[in-house]
Design brief:
By secondary structure, the protein is an alpha+beta fold. The chain contains four helices and eight strands. The chain has helices at 15-18, 58-73, 124-133, 155-160, and strands at residues 22-25, 28-31, 36-44, 77-82, 90-95, 98-103, 115-121, 140-146. It has a four-stranded antiparallel β-sheet, covered by helices on one side. A two-stranded antiparallel ribbon has the order 1-2. A two-stranded antiparallel sheet has the order 5-6. The radius of gyration is 20 Å and the shape is flat.
Length: 181
């Protein structure tokens, strides 16, 4: 796409304005506080023993969809997904270099993930504020965790991945975790 085509801002392509870390004031481009990625993990109590096909009530889904729309409209939502209950999954554990598959149910497990949101925000406090707004039920917990970036690792770990160019489909701006942005 050429600069200024298909966009209400003639001076720059739309991408410049859709990134949550840029703001425009009077035609000038400014950067906000560096963005960090956070995962909000939904942990519904009782989901660890839920039968295959277990689903939330329609009213709860409707409330959650409105919340998801707010995250999207605020420009902070990168990704989200709900997960099937563990009864339709498996766990792979490792010991002495050997993989062991455990079919559900998982003995001794008291908390499991029901879904997640991946957000791009300026701080942990901001992520916590979004988590507090979640329309979770009385039996649900939302855990907030910062996603590790390349800079979070020690120099020897950074060196170990220095030769790797791209593991996420040619999108270096998404390469967090073990990839240098």
């Amino acid at each position: 796409m050429e600069i200024g085509t298909g966009c209400r801002f003639a001076a720059m392509p739309f991408d410049y304005f859709s990134k949550p870390w840029t703001m425009v004031f009077g035609g000038a481009l400014f950067r906000r506080k560096p963005a960090m990625r956070f995962m909000m993990l939904m942990i519904p109590k009782g989901y660890e023993t839920a039968a295959p096909g277990t689903q939330p009530e329609a009213a709860a889904v409707e409330r959650m969809m409105k919340y998801n729309e707010q995250l999207q409209q605020a420009g902070v939502l990168l990704s989200l997904d709900g997960l099937h209950p563990p009864s339709v999954g498996a766990r792979v554990t490792f010991s002495d270099g050997q993989a062991r598959v455990i079919q559900a149910p998982f003995p001794g497990v008291s908390e499991v993930l029901g879904g997640y949101w991946l957000l791009e925000l300026g701080s942990l406090d901001e992520a916590i504020e979004w988590a507090k707004r979640c329309p979770a039920g009385d039996n649900e917990t939302v855990e907030v965790r910062k996603v590790m970036t390349f800079e979070d690792f020690a120099p020897d770990v950074q060196q170990a991945v220095a030769g790797v160019k791209d593991l996420q489909g040619g999108k270096p701006e998404l390469n967090g975790g073990f990839m240098k942005p």
